[in-house]
Design a protein that fits this description.
Strand content: 15-25%
Order of helices and strands: EEEEEHEEHHEHHHEEEHHHHHEHHHEEH
Structural class: alpha/beta
Number of strands: 14
CATH class of the largest domain: Alpha Beta
Strand order of the largest sheet: 5-4-3-2-1-6-8-7
CATH architecture of the largest domain: 2-Layer Sandwich
CATH topology of the largest domain: Nucleotidyltransferase, domain 5
Oligomer: single chain
Radius of gyration: 21 Å
Largest sheet: 8 strands, mixed
Bound molecules: adenosine-5'-diphosphate
């Protein structure tokens, strides 16, 4: 039996850098920090949280790497430190968005893994460079500490070919243009937690997991394996999101290209100017949309959001051929009773019925379905960092790192 193991989890994105320190097997983080690069030009908002309190500081940014080095050092230096020495960290786990065709499981990071993450920048130009930057920073700050990559695409790697392959000329599939799916760490985690909550074996369950945050995706999980998901070759596909369109007729892109828009224009339009923000014209934040009861476009944005979610669940359900549990997670899924109610409205005919009182109850995880509902409707908080820490812990237990 291992004594406690200290694991640092890093989630490096383009707009923020999130770090979490765990002392496994304890699931409560000992230290949590976020560097948000987007608050002000030339400045970053640094937030740290420990059992002792929470601190927020705005710091000047001349060089992001030096801000991150100082930020990490506060884990083992200064009055807020929670470790005496950086060497106490046993493993660093990284969330990596795109693992390409190669990685179906978490892997210890070596030169080959880094080369693959770099190679996949062509498919994930925003996320993979940030993930790689996080890995290289940790190699510099903690050179003796092994690092592990946990991929957002890995959970979907066993999707059957009819779900994976686009109906394009086959050579594009051979070039790697197929449906990878994303949010896999979250979908896998909440599907596993659903099985635990229901005291059932995951291998016997059919589950649809709805990760509804700023980015939204849904996954059909059969026997613990992702068999279909709404995101595709990129995280732009699928349901409507905060600023992303989700699925639209590809003919629109051809039309707009002919109208003179460039690839960069389309990228901005579809990734940052569409979704709830694009339709409502007021916000990408669902709370603002829901609060704008007298704004017709905000109402329309919400109705499209629900319409598309219901359609996506129906489509996943049709190919899943049955359903034991529908799981809601992430910012919207965990917090918006309204969304859960509207998504599941009038679905008694296929055995889904939400109980209004339970839907407003806490704490999570919780079953919000009526007793007579054949399908259990669950709200389960996602904990991607904790899932990554657990993957690292398994490697330590097995002596892999
Ligand atoms: P990210 O994908 O960035 O991790 P989150 O999972 O934090 O995003 O989800 C952000 C979304 O959750 C926002 O659209 C926000 O409006 C929504 N959200 C958070 N709290 C609530 C709430 N109480 N009611 C409705 N929506 C909420």
């Amino acid at each position: 039996m291992l004594s406690s193991v200290t694991i640092l989890v890093m989630n490096a994105g383009s707009s923020s850098h999130k770090v979490c320190l765990y002392q496994l097997p304890d699931p409560t983080p000992r230290w949590q920090g976020v560097v948000d690069w987007t608050k002000e030009m030339g400045k970053a908002l640094v937030t740290t949280k420990t059992a002792q309190g929470k601190w927020e500081e705005v710091v000047p940014v001349t060089d992001r790497a030096s801000v991150l080095r100082d930020f990490l050092a506060t884990i083992w230096q200064g009055e807020r430190r929670v470790l005496d020495r950086p060497e106490e960290i046993r493993v660093v786990g990284h969330r990596v968005v795109h693992g390409g065709q190669v990685y179906q499981q978490p892997v210890p990071i070596d030169g080959q893994v880094k080369a693959t993450i770099r190679e996949m920048i062509k498919f994930a130009p925003v996320h993979n460079p940030a993930n790689l930057g996080g890995i290289e920073l940790m190699e510099e700050v903690l050179p003796q500490v092994p690092q592990v990559a946990v991929f957002d695409t890995a959970f979907h790697s066993q999707m059957p070919l009819p779900a994976k392959v686009y109906p394009l000329p086959y050579r594009y599939f051979e070039q790697g243009i197929y449906r990878y799916g994303f949010h896999g760490i979250s979908h896998q985690y909440v599907a596993g937690e659903a099985a635990k909550f229901l005291q059932r074996d995951l291998t016997d369950l059919k589950v649809i997991t709805c990760h509804l945050g700023n980015g939204c995706s849904l996954t059909a999980v059969r026997g613990g394996i992702s068999v279909n998901t709404t995101m595709g070759f990129t995280p732009l596909a699928g349901v409507m999101m905060g600023t992303r369109s989700g699925d639209i007729d590809p003919g629109i892109l051809i039309y707009l290209l002919r109208e003179g828009l460039t690839a960069d224009d389309l990228d901005r339009l579809l990734n940052r100017e569409s979704g709830l923000l694009g339709v409502s014209g007021i916000s990408n934040d669902l709370r603002t949309i829901l609060a704008a009861a007298d704004n017709d476009r905000a109402q329309l944005a919400y109705q499209i959001f629900i319409h598309r979610l219901r359609g996506a669940i129906g489509s996943l359900l049709a190919n899943l051929g049955g359903l034991d549990a529908l799981v809601f997670t992430a910012g919207i899924g965990e917090n918006s009773a309204q969304v859960r109610e509207d998504v599941c409205a009038n679905w008694e005919f296929w055995g889904i019925a939400v109980d209004p009182d339970r839907n407003h109850s806490r704490p999570c995880p919780i079953d919000i379905s009526r007793d007579r509902s054949k399908v259990r409707v669950l709200v389960i908080p996602t904990q991607e960092d904790w899932a990554i820490a657990q993957a690292c812990y398994e490697f330590v237990v097995k002596g892999v790192v």
